[in-house]
Every structure is written in structure tokens, then in C-alpha cells.
Amino acid sequence: MRKISLLFGLILTSTIGLKAQYNNLFIPDTLSGTEFNLNIKDTFAQVVASGNQTITGGINGKFWGPTLFFNKGEVVHMNVKNNLNDSTTLHWHGMHLPAVMDGGPHQIIPPGTLWQPFWKVENLAATYWYHPHLHEMTMEQITKGIGGLIIVRDSVESALPLPRTYGIDDIPLVLTDRDFGTDNQLVEVPYGDSMLTNFTLRAQYNVPAQVVRFRVLNGAIERSYNLGFSDSRNFYVIASDGGLLTAPVALNRYVIHAGERIEILVDCSADSGKSIDLKAYNSTLAQNVAGGDVFPNGPFVNYLARKDFNILHLNIGAATSNAITQIPTSLVSITPHLAANANLTRYLTINDTNIAGITGAAFLINHKLFDINYNNYDVPLNNTEIWEIKSTSNFGHPFHIHDVEFNILSVNGAAPAAAQAGWKDVVFVPAQTTVKFIAKFDDFADALHPFMYHCHISLHEDEGMMGQFIVTETSTGLSKTTAESHDFSLYPNPGKDKLFIAFNESNPSVYYISILNITGKAVRMLPQPEWQNGIDISTLSSGVYFLQLTDGKTKIVTTKKFIKD
Ligand code: C2O
Ligand code: CU
Ligand code: CU
Description:
This protein has 565 residues and is mostly beta strands. Strands 3, 4, 6, 8, 9, 37, 38, 40 and 41 form a nine-stranded mixed β-sheet that branches. Strands 12, 13, 14, 15, 17, 19, 20 and 22 form an eight-stranded mixed β-sheet that branches.
């Protein structure tokens, strides 16, 4: 009897203790420079305070990968190693880059393979992110915590008096929610019952009494978050998905949807010694917005639906030296695309399932499910296009397009809100509403590799709410090519460190190189390789390999054997 009540007492205190207790916000590591090593793997972490560790997916660390710092104008090289037991892809969300480097569902990285895309950073300073994009597996792999932030810097942003000391007054916030099963393992559901900020439960953080910048990503599977502070103070939106705004926009609430980013400034100058909470005021979300939809039971049931809950508890301490203490009055000038310059309007629809023979798929674009072997649109290179998305769906969907940053022209006929009037790559399409945006497709024509557009609710995307387009060369079409353009030999063979390619033609064009092992499995994938300097084979174990080369003009694939010493 005694023992039992003692045990009961212990459980009670520890439960109460748990509720009051905050965990320090995890701040992802940073990587910078021009060469980035990303090792995707299954791992585990003590996410829940007690009990079993949680099996997670990590990039370099335990979950949620390093924040990558890019400088506009530099060429970045990625070494993405897939050490999962499954295939994956890694998509650079928001980056303007060649389709073959984009990491969409077509750039599959088999287990054990090194994928080495590279590109010149053309994006404006803002917050972007990277995440898996394997068709029908995106939700599962994002649920495990695979992904990370990208922060692009440029000379314009660097000249502004903004906080930019990472983790001190410039703080990354990745918002997700998850369900933990009884054994503390992640459950793959669209709505979690536990808020995770940077994969931290009940997060708290110490910030200095000055202007603090938060880079907020909605990295959730489905939920939108209605951001606000517990004392209803104003915050100032300075950047949308793809760049700074013309001036800070003062707000005390902002609904951020899956895939979107905003950067905000909060003035904590007068708050030393106080605590405030950043919260999701989701009790005010409409029923047709993700997180406002209350399902009493079934797979969509969740404890956070239409509730207000904490995102981050902030403890405000002393100011740092050289603190930013003013919210700037203006930021950058933006030259948006003008509707008058559009060559074409594309009409898309979002609709709830109503096609014969399809059951289970909830939402569709243009009344069709995604087909990875079907190209939905040819977009002529240099086109400026208006995409008009008419939704008859009873639910709101965050629509995302790869390759470009766009300007929203209208939402239900009205101009976009000030905080959405800059560069975007996700636009929320409310239920029963038409949204128009405009974009220019000014680079990266590629007849072989498409870019994607889709709903950024991973569940909807996996279920087929996605399409793809190819950017096509307008002038002469595909150039006819000389027959011998894939005639080459490899040396030295056997080789140890670098493998060189000798072409029997004067102007070879190499599109893609894969190195396969003796069983035919890809171990290395090099899109548009810089083959002139030799291919680094020093890390391959000795044995027989095949180099598979896709010709840039003909797209013909040729395979040659070599031996690694
Ligand atoms: Cu962030 Cu196609 O996705
Ligand atoms: Cu994307
Ligand atoms: Cu959707």
C-alpha cells in the first residue's frame, strides 16, 4: 500500500514538473563557405524529456540539419551523402537553379550514394530551406526531421542596420508539430499534438533587450500558425520568402502557412528582466485553414486544433554591445514584375476530388493527380507568366512553385497585404478563392528535367496535388548534334585519385555523370560535372566501377568501365 502511494506521488510530481519545465531552444549548427557536406542519416535523440529516445532523421546531427550560409554571386558545391536505408532527394526550396540540381522528385539519391549538385547563388538575401522531396515519401521523411535552413546574404542586406548575429539577435525558428507514440516514437500524421520549435518541445530562449530578428519557417506537415506575442505587441515583418520588403510592416498577428518564411523584428529594448511568449493564436483560425479544422476523431484528430499554444518562451536579458535598437524605416527597393509585361496567363484549378476512379486522394490541381512521367506545361524560356489559380476547394492550400520567386498580383481580386507584396515562392490559396501571381522564367532551359509546383501540405503533395513544367528553349529548339559527341575514354585506368575523360571531339558537352559500382548501383551522381579538372575518385573503395555519361546535346548515355586502385 505504502509503496503504491509513494509511486503514485512520484508520478504526479514528475508530471506536474514536466508541464512547467521549458527546454532550451535548439539552435542548428551553421556551415558556410562554398563547399557543404551534408550527411543524411537515421539517428536518435532525446526529444521527449523522459523515456525512450526518439528515432529521427538527421543531417550531420541528431535532427534538423545545419543552417547553410550562402553569399549571393558565389558558386556553392554540395556533397549530399544519403546514409538512410531508403532513397531520398534533397530540394533547395526557393533557390533559383538548374532543374537537374533542384532536388525534386526526379533527382533520386539511392542509399549509399553521394549527390554533388552545384550552382551559382542568384537569390536575394532571405531565408530559404532544404528538405526531402521523394514522391509519396516527402511527409514521412520530413516527419523524421530531415531538413534545414539556408540563409542567403547579399551586399544590399548587409548594408542595412539589421540584427545578424546568428543565435544571439538573429534567431532561426522552424515551426513544426508532431505526435509521439507511447514509446516516444514519431507518428506520421498530418497534425501533431506537440508543438516543436527547432525540434524542441516547450522551447524557451534568452534574448537580449534590443531589436531581435526571428527567421520563421513553417516546416509543418500541414498546420498553419497564427503568430503573435502574448502581450500583443507589434512585430515588424521585414522579409517574405524570397527577399526583404521595401519597409518593415507592423503587425501583431500573421498567419504563416506550410513552406512559407518570414523574417520579423521585435523590439525588446525596454524589456530586460521580463518574459514574453511567441504563440500560435490558432483559436481564431477558420475551419477551412489547416489547424482551424477540428475533427472529433479519425486520422486528423489533434489536441492543438483551433487552440492557442506556445511556440517559444522568451526570457529577456541584458543588451549586447553594439545592439540594434531601432526598427529601420525603409529596407530595399523592389522592382516587381508587371502584369502588363506578361506573355501568357496560365489558368490552374484547385479542386476537391471529383474524378471517377480516384478514391482516397483528397485534392487535385487541374482535376488531375500528379504523374511523374507526364509534363504538365512547357514554359518558353524568358516568358513572363501570370498563373491564375482558381480554387473550388473547401479547404485552403499553400501553393508552391520551384525555380522562381514571384509577385502576388491579387488574392480574391484584392492586392496582396503589405507583408506579402515582395518576393514569394509559396502563396496561400484560401478556400473558394482565385489567386494570381506573376513570375519570369529567365534561365535554366532544360528539355529533360522539370520543375515542380504543388501544395506544400506534404500530405496533399504526396497524395498527388502536384504538377511539373519544363522550361524550353524558344529560339532554335534542340540543336542537332554531331554523332561522335559521346565518344570518350578514361585515364588513368586503373586510377587512384582523379579520373580524367578524354573526348574524341573538340567541343564535348557533358550533362550528367554517374559512377556505378559492379552491381550497377549509383555511388556518385554529378549533375553537369566540372569534368575538365578530373573526377575525384579518391574516396571510392578499390574495385571495378562504371562511369555513365549523359551527353549534353543528345542526352545519349554511354557507359565505360574503370578500375579504382
Ligand atoms: Cu519545399 Cu517542392 O518544395
Ligand atoms: Cu521548392
Ligand atoms: Cu493542399
